[in-house]
Amino acid sequence: MKVGIIGAGGIARKMAQTLSHMTEAEAYAIASRSADKAEAFAKQYGLARPYGSYEALLEDDAVDLVYIALPHSHHCEWTLAALDAGKHVLCEKAFAANAAQTRQMLARAREKKRLLAEAIWTRYMPSRALIDEVVASGRLGKVAALNANLGYRIDAHERIVRPELAGGALLDLTVYPLNFAAMVLGGGIERMEASCVMTDTGVDGADNVLLTYEGGQAASLFTTIYALTDRRGMVYGAEGFLEVENINNPRALRIWSADRDNPQLLETIDVPAQISGYEYEVLACRRAIEAGALECPEMPHAETLRIMEQMDAIRAGFGIVFPFE
């Protein structure tokens, strides 16, 4: 499977490097608005075809899967263009800038009968199944609550703070704890409350989100673009709790007892070795394409839309409207 990458930034480089270690897929083409940048990228990562425009890559009949590695503001436009060109698409998270764009993208994929998947890598990793197994096993007892945080010092990154690029902590960071909560507790959210710290540019720099579920569970989520956090996820049950080391790329799971005065570490579950973690979403796309599917079961279209609708509601509460909306 030949992969064409649109966008030559840091996340594109990580994908190209990952693909260079895979036998199931090939980093075949790179497209940048700068021909020189595309040439340098292709040379560094061993890609066969560098293109100085996105359109040129989409005209290459050899490209099987297009990976969209652009700012959130450009996901919809170039996903639609890739689908119209007859390509299967793996689009980076956050999938789009808003739910309206998401619906348009999903409808076009159905119309063109092409795979469209969101590259929210934590949905595809083996750790997802490991977490599910712990919760389903009953070792924690009935799950009552969870919390999760994610923070990096990225406030100097242009795409993070510019409203015209759909910047802010919400689409770049908060999408991960929202997905973490959804993977553990599902979608029966009864009430959602959120607050944020605004940047000088008018986007959210730090988010606090509280979720209350129909089944009585609660989730507390925090993200920030101003500092590195421990990135932990905690799932609390009546009989014990689960610690997930780094919700953005889980390294280990730890099961603790519910002893009030002296909780005991009962088990540590190591996560399988990986190239970077990106390989799992690529492999999922290949399996889906070979099966003739339009979505990956690891991240169905309905789930992508549901998370985007949650982020729309949170952003509306913040009073943030992107210039292009």
Concise account of the structure shown:
The protein is of the alpha/beta class and 325 residues long.
Keywords:
single chain; 325 residues; alpha/beta; 8-stranded mixed beta sheet; 6-stranded parallel beta sheet; 35% helix; 26% strand; globular
Describe this entry's structure for a reader:
- The structure is a single chain.
- With about 325 residues, the chain is an alpha/beta fold.
- Helix content is about 35%, strand content about 25%.
- The chain has 10 helices and 14 strands.
- Strands 8-9-10-7-11-12-13-14 form an 8-stranded mixed sheet. The protein has a 6-stranded parallel sheet with strand order 3-2-1-4-5-6, with helices on both faces.
- A hairpin with a 6-residue loop joins strand 12 (about 240-245) and strand 13 (about 250-255).
- The two termini are about 35 Å apart.
- The mean pLDDT is about 100.
Set out the fold topology:
Layout: E1 2-6, H1 10-19, E2 26-31, H2 35-45, E3 49-51, H3 54-58, E4 65-68, H4 75-84, E5 88-92, H5 99-112, E6 116-119, H6 126-137, E7 143-151, H7 158-161, H8 169-185, E8 189-198, E9 204-213, E10 218-224, E11 233-237, E12 240-245, E13 252-257, E14 265-270, H9 279-290, H10 301-318
Parallel strand pairs: 1-2, 1-4, 2-3, 4-5, 5-6, 7-10
Antiparallel strand pairs: 7-11, 8-9, 9-10, 11-12, 12-13, 13-14
Helix pairs in contact: 4-5, 5-10, 8-10
